[in-house]
Write a structure and sequence with these properties.
7 helices; 370 residues; Spo0b-associated Gtp-binding Protein, Chain: A; alpha/beta; 2 domains; Rossmann fold
């Protein structure tokens, strides 16, 4: 199925019902006073993150989403019925942006997360609210307010722990097939991957992480060249990037170092934060080289790149070195989780100490007591 990761929709909340101007007319109460009820509230439009929804394909073809209007008020103190709210389900990882001003409306990162997209209009007041001692027969009423109307841009960013990046034919799809349950299309020509692929990597029965493969990048990707630029946004949520390099390209005029540096420049052009993410070099297709040539190329590549970070030598085709890489990734992710957890605990402890250190004589403490 084609991966639909972007859509534009319009959400229109319901208008509030108008208030009613009415007077009580009973047999023995000819001047019973005002009894016009309020209008009902218009329906609001909400979004709910649902992990059972995988794409935005439904919103690609369904552009306009409306909520119903509230009913108007009626006489005999009858209030109009409020319209029901509309709930739309979208995949976890969807970023919702106002298409007019660029404001981020919602960022769905957890299953069940609910956010308001368009608020329904409030119902108008009936003349029952305008009765006073000097104005016993008010004819004033107010109209219901209009519901919000917004044009939204939906962007789906896959939620993965690890993201793969590299030039076309670097072996990303072969690698994700070797280490996970994903089965993307693999062929001996570039641009085989046309949409992102997600795979769950099992380190053990209870230990796993999610890896994402996006279409290969080429020089000029940040300006829209190739296919990968459409999916670079998916790498922004990952905690670790694996830069996979074909160290034994089929074409002799291809320089792996030049291609690797060009890819880093494209990341910088697209989003500087991507370059700051932890990134490891994974040198692939080493099975086609003999031992001496292999060591020579690896040493020359690291030297010319002036690379100081982790380097892994693998062959995704025969899975050589893949398990060591998987174990290292899991340890890195676990260490990162523990660090973040400790940081949260430290912050909570500092906040608790700040509360405990309040002087009882401090006026702020008395306000809290009150």
């Amino acid at each position: 199925m084609k991966f639909i990761d972007e859509a534009r929709i319009e959400v229109i909340a319901g208008d509030g019902g108008n208030g009613c101007a009415s007077f009580r007319r009973e047999k023995f109460r000819p001047f019973g006073g005002p009894d016009g009820g309020d209008g009902g509230k218009g329906g609001s439009i909400w979004v709910v993150a649902d992990r059972n929804v995988n794409t935005l394909v439904d919103f690609r073809y369904s552009k306009v989403h409306n909520a119903k209007n509230g009913e108007p008020g009626r006489g005999s103190d009858c209030y109009g019925k409020g319209a029901e709210d509309v709930y739309m389900r979208m995949p976890v990882g969807t970023l919702i942006v106002d298409d007019v001003n660029g404001e981020i409306v919602a960022d769905l990162t957890e299953h069940g997360q609910t956010e308001l997209l368009a608020k329904g209009g409030e119902g108008g007041w009936g003349n029952i609210h305008f009765k006073t001692s000097t104005n016993r027969a008010p004819r004033q009423k107010t109209e219901g307010k209009e519901g919000e109307r917004r044009t939204l841009r939906l962007e789906l960013k896959v939620l993965a722990d690890v993201g793969l990046l590299g030039m076309p034919n670097a072996g990303k799809s072969t690698f994700i097939t070797a280490v996970s349950n994903a089965r993307p299309k693999i062929a001996d020509y570039p641009f085989t991957t046309l949409h992102p692929n997600l795979g769950v990597v099992r380190v053990s029965h209870e230990k796993s992480f999610v890896i994402a493969d996006i279409p290969g990048l080429i020089e000029g990707a940040a300006e829209g060249a190739g296919l990968g630029h459409q999916f670079l946004r998916h790498l922004s949520r990952t905690g670790l990037l694996l830069h996979i390099v074909d160290l034994a390209p089929f074409e002799t005029n291809v320089d792996p170092v030049k291609e690797a540096k060009a890819l880093v420049k494209e990341l910088e052009k697209y989003d500087a934060e991507l370059v700051d993410k932890p990134r490891w070099l994974v040198l692939n297709k080493l099975d086609v080289l003999d031992e001496a040539e292999r060591k020579k190329r690896v040493k020359d590549f690291v030297k010319r790149m002036a690379w100081k970070g982790p380097v892994f030598e693998i062959s995704a085709l025969n899975r050589e070195g893949c398990q060591d890489l998987v174990n290292a990734i899991y340890l890195h992710l676990e260490e990162k989780r523990h660090t973040e957890h400790r940081a949260e605990e430290t912050q909570m402890t500092e906040e608790a100490r700040g509360i405990a250190s309040i002087d009882p004589a401090d006026p702020r403490f008395k306000i809290l007591e009150d």
